[in-house]
Amino acid sequence: MGGQSEKWVLMVTARTPTNIAVIKYWGKRDEKLILPINDSISVTLDPNHLCTTTTVSVSPSFVEDRMWLNGKEISLQGGRFQSCLREIRARANDVEDEKKGIKIKKEDWQKLHLQIASYNNFPTAAGLASSAAGFACLVFSLAKLMNLKEDNSQLSAIARQGSGSACRSLYGGFVKWIMGKEENGSDSLAVQLADEKHWDDLVIIIAVVSARQKETSSTSGMRDTVETSALIKHRAKEVVPKRIIEMETAIKNRDFASFTRLACTDSNQFHAVCLDTYPPIFYMNDTSHRIISCVEKWNRSEETPQVAYTFDAGPNAVMIARDRKTAALLLQRLLYNFPPKSDTDLDSYVIGDKSILQDAG
Ligand code: DP6
């Protein structure tokens, strides 16, 4: 390890988008390794918005590992951070920067300390999958810094140990998280079903119903569900495996009608399972329910092309339109029925597709 002086700093910056599940992950069979009870499928959003940007740096002058999220220092002591750091350090390789005269040997990574600064450009922990983009970005940037040779799928198995849904953000396009069978989690990883170019006319509209932090975290919510819900067993064993096959076919064939039916029913079943948890978990609020009614009415009309909706562990609605024209019509309807910052309890809209994203708050 060394350079002209011990004052050098080496850094890497990466940006990772969030992903929205259209077949949901809910429930773990192993809490520590974060192994799910079913496969899930997601769409990765455009990295321009709804993304995390992380800079990781290493220097011999750092005396401990430290991390800042949106400018505020957070603890790295949690088991999830430690699992990711341990797994990455174990796979680190030699790094050489000739210009700066820096040489880091593989074994040096065990002693060197890191400083990590991460920014989300969207509300943290408000059901907009901030932990997904966050851990994916952390793992990806550290892997670059420490010169890991693993591919994105193998990196996804590390990101998974930070937050389950994070493993799907290592890829763009449509992604499947395979639950795997191994007890050590080695086969519980993400694979890309179709890349960013596939079905690239889809447009995503997010109605930020509330940017407040959610009351029940996904982690504790799904733990309670697995412990108390009878419906989750049926969902994981009977319902999801069939839906995964159907969803893969719908994505491959760009079959928007099937995509919509599967995404909407799966979101609804996820929230039914939350209601079946004891004590029950309510992630959606009145505004969320009214948005569902509005989209269902829209979908039953002959004149307007269908739109898919899905809700994660929070009240915000994620809607997917098949093209920009439909998205514009839908946004018009939403702005009329749910004007932002009014008594409808709606904060703003975020619109995105595979190439351009704009705020419409
Ligand atoms: C509703 O990945 O946040 O968004 O693994 O405990 O960190 P942990 O949970 P997390 O759960 C996400 C749940 C979901 C559905 C999904 O993204 O598939």
How is the topology of this model organized?
Elements (H helix, E strand, L loop, with lengths): L9 E8 L1 E5 L4 E3 L4 E2 L3 E5 L6 E9 L6 E4 L2 E3 L4 H13 L3 E3 L4 E3 L8 E8 L9 H16 L6 H8 L14 E4 L12 E5 L8 E6 L9 H11 L2 H22 L3 H20 L10 H15 L6 E4 L6 E5 L2 H14 L10 E6 L3 E3 L2
Parallel strand pairs: 7-11
Antiparallel strand pairs: 1-6, 2-5, 3-4, 5-12, 6-11, 7-8, 9-10, 12-13, 14-16, 14-17, 15-16, 17-18
Helix pairs in contact: 2-3, 5-6
Ligand DP6 binds next to helix 4.
Describe the fold and architecture:
- The chain has 361 residues and is of the alpha+beta class.
- The protein has helices spanning 79-91, 130-145, 152-159, 218-228, 231-252, 256-275, 286-300, 324-337; strands spanning 10-17, 19-23, 28-30, 35-36, 40-44, 51-59, 66-69, 72-74, 95-97, 102-104, 113-120, 174-177, 190-194, 203-208, 307-310, 317-321, 348-353, 357-359.
- The strands form five sheets. Strands 1-6-11-7-8 form a five-stranded mixed beta sheet. The chain has a five-stranded antiparallel beta sheet with strand order 15-16-14-17-18.
- Helix 2 (130-145) packs across helix 3 (152-159) and helix 5 (231-252) packs antiparallel against helix 6 (256-275).
- The longest helix is centred in the C-terminal third of the chain and has 22 residues, at 231-252.
- The protein is globular and about 70 Å long.
